[in-house]
Hints:
Oligomer: single chain
Structural class: mainly alpha
Mean pLDDT: 95
Number of domains: 1
Number of helices: 5
Shape: globular
Radius of gyration: 13 Å
Amino acid sequence: xxxxxxxxxxxxxxxxxxxxxxxxxxxxxxxxxxxxxxxxxxxxxxxxxxxxxxxxxxxxxxxxxxxxxxxxxxxxxxxxxxxxxxxxxxxxxxxxxxxx
Length: 100
């Protein structure tokens, strides 16, 4: 388990959530950090949350050469679904930090 590494990558993902762009674009940008993690990097009680986030971020394959599964998946989300996923990512970060 590499909890410190998971904290670092989740922090970077949260930073991308507060950058500019549409909610879908910002959520897609988190994928570049979260993809570097594995379920085993998290405490047992957070693994399912991480797996669910990644399932949503990688639900669809890239549609063209310069595309990613993160972009392809978030393009198909509604804004409310993307907002919920952003909250899930933030909440996972808070949980791995030990709460607020």
